[in-house]
């Protein structure tokens, strides 16, 4: 396996682990002790969750109604009574869900080991409905005529789709915002033991409902794996020229140094001065590492730009003994210099959506704050975080957000999302017609750039 392929394989595993980072965080070593299910082991894991969150979580100020100590103390009987390993992790996950943060969660080893899977279907929340956006190529999907555009009405024995989403995803991972939780919930909510069936009640465009049974096996008929777009790293970038001189560039992740090389190669290949515009698609980029994002920003600016500023919790035992309040550590605001290589300085539109998260949001901040680009689409996830990683008994990993990032002027985006300059929501009708309405609008904006550019002043 080549180094590049190794990196891309690692990325796919990382996404399955919900690894969504805003900056490099040391990987946690899973607990070496196998799962015993003893009271001592369960309590030790709960202690890890309590202590790691208490001293590292960046957003307690946003949760004035949460008494973390009381919440953990009250969870002791429920954690101790967990009947098996997976349920134990779910009950710990109910605790981390109280923090409402997209980078704070418990990751079961079943995600790493491939014991759990989803059907080869990708659902999307559109017009407040859960709609099938993509379907894999399997015999059972073909035989049952499961097609994009169908609405998910119920799961299992008639459980309403929204209720199923709440009970099987949002209950453990609500995210930093509603859009963050719902979007990532589409990855989580149908997961279960690999090769097990799940019933889905689907409605077609006329409202006619029928029940199908699909298998939790993401392998297509030809042996390839069906991946959600947030997990598809078969190509780190996609580039094509559309509408006579507009370059469309999709960047799938910032979690691999190869993406910097790939983008640089593409920008070097293009005649940047002859482009009518550039569309940078980050709608399914769930993050990675700033060190692989900011070098790309530097190819898109002609003057220095400011990125996010950040704070992190700071604890001094002596202050605690004196009853003195702690003050978070304030980091330096990021400053990104223009690259020495040829830069693109023409019209730039960035496509965003609820799966645009973490480092992808860090990437947007300097381009948005400086007025360099127009943001188009839906609000981003609103989560960043440099998570602390801790191994839990039996092989799970606890991730806790340690960083609070804002715009250089203090404007918040964590817990809110970055609002587009031009808001475009996909529609069910557009999805059924196989239209990319967000991309269509971006082309329209570039065709009338002067009028739309006036929406945002340059700083």
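Q: What amino acid sequence fits the structure above?
A:
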């Amino acid at each position: 396996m080549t180094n590049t392929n190794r990196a891309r394989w690692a990325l796919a595993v990382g996404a399955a682990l919900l690894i969504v980072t805003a900056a490099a965080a040391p990987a946690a070593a899973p607990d070496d002790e196998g799962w015993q299910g003893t009271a001592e082991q369960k309590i030790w894991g709960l202690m890890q969750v309590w202590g790691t969150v208490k001293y590292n979580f960046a957003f307690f100020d946003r949760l004035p109604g949460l008494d973390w100590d009381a919440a953990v103390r009250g969870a002791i009987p429920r954690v101790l009574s967990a009947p098996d390993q997976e349920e134990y992790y779910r009950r710990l996950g109910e605790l981390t869900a109280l923090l409402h943060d997209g980078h704070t969660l418990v990751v079961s080893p079943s995600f790493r080991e491939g014991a759990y899977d989803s059907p080869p279907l990708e659902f999307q929340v559109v017009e407040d409905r859960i709609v099938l956006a993509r379907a894999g190529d399997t015999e059972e999907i073909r035989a049952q005529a499961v097609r994009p555009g169908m609405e998910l009405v119920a799961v299992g024995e008639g459980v309403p789709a929204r209720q199923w989403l709440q009970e099987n995803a949002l209950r453990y991972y609500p995210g930093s915002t509603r859009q963050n939780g719902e979007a990532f919930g589409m990855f989580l909510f149908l997961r279960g033991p690999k090769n097990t069936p799940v019933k889905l009640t689907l409605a077609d465009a006329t409202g006619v409902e029928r029940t199908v049974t699909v298998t939790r096996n993401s392998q297509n008929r030809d042996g390839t794996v069906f991946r959600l777009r947030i997990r598809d790293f078969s190509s780190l970038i996609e580039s094509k020229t559309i509408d006579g001189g507009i370059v469309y560039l999709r960047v799938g992740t910032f979690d691999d140094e190869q993406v910097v090389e790939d983008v640089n190669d593409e920008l070097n290949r293009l005649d940047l001065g002859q482009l009518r515009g550039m569309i940078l698609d980050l709608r399914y980029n769930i993050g990675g590492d700033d060190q692989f994002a900011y070098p790309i920003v530097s190819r898109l600016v002609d003057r220095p730009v400011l990125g996010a500023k950040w704070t992190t919790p700071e604890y001094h035992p002596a202050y605690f003994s004196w009853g003195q309040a702690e003050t978070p550590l304030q980091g330096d605001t990021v400053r990104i210099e223009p690259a020495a290589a040829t830069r693109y300085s023409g019209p730039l539109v960035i496509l965003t959506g609820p799966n645009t998260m973490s480092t992808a949001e860090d990437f947007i901040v300097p381009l948005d704050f400086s007025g360099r680009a127009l943001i188009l689409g839906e609000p981003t996830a609103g989560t960043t975080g440099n998570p602390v990683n801790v191994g839990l008994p039996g092989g799970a990993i606890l991730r806790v957000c340690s960083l609070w990032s804002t715009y250089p002027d203090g404007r918040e985006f964590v817990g809110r999302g970055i609002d587009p300059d031009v808001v475009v929501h996909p529609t069910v009708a557009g999805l059924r017609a196989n239209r990319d309405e967000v991309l269509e609008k971006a082309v329209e904006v570039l065709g009338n750039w002067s009028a739309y550019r006036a929406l945002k002043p340059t700083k």
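Q: And what stands out in the fold?
A: The radius of gyration is 23 Å.
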